[in-house]
Design goal:
Layout lengths: L1 H17 L12 H11 L2 H11 L5 H11 L1 E2 L2 E2 H7 L3 H8 L15
Antiparallel strand pairs: 1-2
Helix pairs in contact: 2-3, 2-5, 3-4, 5-6
């Protein structure tokens, strides 16, 4: 019984850490960094405005394709980076333009 209680407390503690509000700061001010920051913790409109700067004269869809194809954030694809940090709205938008599949911590594709 003590083991079960300890496991439950540890699990709840890790859940709270995973759901903590995290604010990201870039190490530089490049457009790619700003796009990664928006993917991690920005709104969908923040992400869109940053991605539009990537290809301002092209249609929005083309800018998204360019971003997901060419930008990686900390070694992850743009869409997986958004999912990893819990920005599900950004992930949903980015996967429309991506060939990525999200690999969960259990190792299964999602």
């Amino acid at each position: 019984m003590k083991t079960l209680t300890l496991i439950t407390i540890c699990t709840l503690g890790l859940t709270n850490i995973a759901n903590a509000d995290v604010t990201f700061k870039g190490t530089d001010s490049t457009l790619e960094t700003q796009i990664c920051l928006a993917a991690a913790n920005g709104s969908a409109s923040d992400l869109k405005s940053q991605i539009k700067k990537l290809a301002p004269r092209r249609p929005t869809a083309k800018a998204y394709y360019l971003a997901v194809k060419n930008i990686s954030c900390n070694g992850q694809s743009l869409s997986n980076f958004a999912a990893f940090y819990g920005n599900h709205k950004a992930y949903a938008v980015l996967t429309k333009y991506s060939q990525d599949t999200l690999v969960t911590s259990s190792g299964r594709n999602k």
